[in-house]
Amino acid sequence: MEAVQAVAEPRRREILRLVWDDELCAGDIAERFEVTFGAVSQHLKVLRDAGLVTLRQEGRKRYYRADREAMGPLAAYLQSMWADKLDVLAELAEAAEATEAAERAGEANGSGT
After folding, report:
1. C-alpha 61, offset from chain centre
2. What would the pLDDT profile of 37-70 be if each residue is shown by its tens digit?
3. Which of 56, 59, 70, 83 has its CA 20 to 30 A from that of 76?
4. CA 61, CA 6: separation in Å to the nearest integer?
5. Which residues contact 43 (CB under 8 A, 6 or more apart)?
6. Cα–Cα distance between 53 and 65 in angstroms, integer?
7. What is the CA radius of gyration of the chain?
8. Which positions ≥6 away from 107 have C-beta within 8 Å?
9. Helices vs. strands in the chain: H and E counts, helices first
10. Where do the HTH arsR-type domain residues begin and end (predicted)?
11. pTM value?
């Protein structure tokens, strides 16, 4: 399966995000999803077959890490996509904080409802 097709699925993109900077074992990855371990294992296989993650086996555990070098330009795209989402989240958090501060100030001045 081609790399772009592999990352078209949202769970696979989330798995890549989880293993972007950290190596995680399959069990730790699976714990973060509300699907079966088998389903996560299938997603990991697709990512591995597409060359997007590396696999290291230690005893009975399998550890995965994003292979950014093998991704080429796709790595920069994914990283910018996640950065954009984080920027939006930060803006929403700041707006909510400003709204709460304004409401508290209004209540302190006796103009609250």
Report:
1. 22
2. 999 999 999 999 989 999 999 999 999 998 888 7
3. 56
4. 23
5. 9, 11, 12, 15
6. 5
7. 20
8. none
9. 6, 3
10. 1-93
11. 0.66
